[in-house]
Amino acid sequence: MALYRAAAAVLSGLERGEGGLKGLVYGSGFPHARRLYALVAETLRYGPVLDALLDGAALLRVEKKLPPPLAKVLVYDLLFGKGLKCGGRWKALARRHRARLQAELARLKVRRGVSRDEDLLLPAPGAGPQATQVPRYVRVNVLKTCVDDVVEFFKRQGYSFLGKAGSLEELRTLSGKKFILDLHFPELLVFPPQTDFHDNRLYTSGHIILQDKASCLPAFLLSPAASSHVIDACAAPGNKTSHLAAILKNKGHIFAFDLDTKRLATMNTMLMRAGVTSCKLAQQDFLTVDPHDPKYSKVKYILLDPSCSGSGMVARLPLEEAAPSTERLQALAGFQRKVLSHALRFPAVQRLAYSTCSVYREENEDVVHAVLQEQGSAFRLVSAFPSWPCRGLATFPGAECCLRASPADTLTQGFFVAILERCGEEAALPSSLPAGTEESLQQEEGMEPGAAPPKKKRRKKQCVK
């Protein structure tokens, strides 16, 4: 029963705007964070369906003492999950209403003209952009395997491989047991939205990482050079850290910080499973780290993904009928400005990726603009990933250098990324450019695709203050 109570508490926290899904799960103290995250995420994904079932079966009117968040997780596991794993009165209550709930589920399928549970998750005709289904993204962990081997594994499991995607539309129309190679990231496989790999042995062995495409942007665009020293300032639960390690091929050194003991313990387990050996974890508030400590004297790259509202998480969209309070956004933005300014104080840092899973300008463009003004001419925004379709909101000159992501426009979680570089240094493009980016840059320079760049001319970037 502890799992369901913890899941209900996370759902309640989301409804009250107390934080994002990831933060509430890892801050809950529940010992099996991965199980809790999966249950809450799936309950949220089925949220509108569960609301319809609870209403149609009149469960909450009959069982007045049953809290709605607890009702949702119980009914999810009863009808769509792996079956109730609890005892006591709540299990007895759920089973007492099983027949009524199953009958209501059958009626709902008839009304919507579908035959499978998963089809109830499809957007209704005329639904707005929030109803867009985000595919299941799978990052191949190159520290343990390679893309070709993972593709062959899934083909042996009965999946059909469609090759490399040429457009977002090909990702949008994936269905059944089909998968495709992402059009932007060379190590990212894409499956239909309902695909679940939590029990797949490639996942449990660390050969694949379940990571949203937008979440892959910060490490990919930071693109630390071989053998670099890198800081991951707010690291748990560790997906981006493992991505950095993969880019570095376990060479160099990653300093990863997080204040929460349980989150760090979970992260340590995840990194060990992923074969990461180049990372040193520290239970420490990044704001208390001394930038002038000699151990960080070689840190040239920083990845900063601080706490945010989590408003870009697709799983939260059904609950986001009202924006977070102004006071909460101001408090988050104040913290984000403070931690970004602190990161830029490290004397050797040359390149920094700032990201959030928020849709609000207060946490994104406004934070970056304020810190750039504070820094004067010391740092500039880099126009990263020119072929990425969504750019920053035009709230200040140069904001279009930033990247945004959304379910409707990029088929990802809502996300924001800004890449900052120290002025006066040679601006380095990412060492591994996404497919099509080199051609895009060559066209910007007026060159023929595939032509070698002039030897004596260097591309200049203008500082954005």
TrEMBL record:
Belongs to the class I-like SAM-binding methyltransferase superfamily. RsmB/NOP family. GO terms for biological process: rRNA base methylation. One of its GO terms (cellular component) is nucleolus. InterPro entries: MeTrfase_RsmB-F_NOP2_cat, MeTrfase_RsmB-F_NOP2_dom, NSUN5_7_fdxn-like, NSUN5_RCM1_N, RCMT, SAM-dependent_MTases_sf. Residues 454-465 have a biased composition (Basic residues). Residues 126-423 form the SAM-dependent MTase RsmB/NOP-type domain. Residues 430-465 are annotated as: Disordered. The active site is at C357 (nucleophile). It comes from the Eukaryota. Pfam families: Methyltr_RsmB-F (PF01189), NSUN5_fdxn-like (PF21148), NSUN5_N (PF21153). Keywords: Acetylation, Methyltransferase, Nucleus, Phosphoprotein, RNA-binding, rRNA processing, S-adenosyl-L-methionine, Transferase. PROSITE patterns: SAM_MT_RSMB_NOP. Gene3D superfamilies: Sun protein, domain 3, Vaccinia Virus protein VP39. This is 28S rRNA (cytosine-C(5))-methyltransferase. Its main location: nucleus. It is found in: Nucleus, Nucleolus. GO terms for molecular function: RNA binding; rRNA (cytosine-C5-)-methyltransferase activity. S-adenosyl-L-methionine binds at C234, A235, A236, P237, G238, N239, K240, D258, D285, D305.
